[in-house]
Amino acid sequence: MRRRIATHRGADPDAVVSAWLAERFVFAGEPCEVVFVSRKPPKNGYPDDLDCLTDVGNEHDPARRRFDHKPPAFSDRNAHCAASLVWDHLCASGADGAHLAPLVRAVHQGDRNPPGRPGPDLIESRASGFHAHFRRVHPRCGGSDATLYAVMRLWLDYHYGSPHRKG
Question: Which of 14, 58, 120, 129 ranks highest by number of CB atoms within 10 Å?
Answer without folding.
Answer: 14
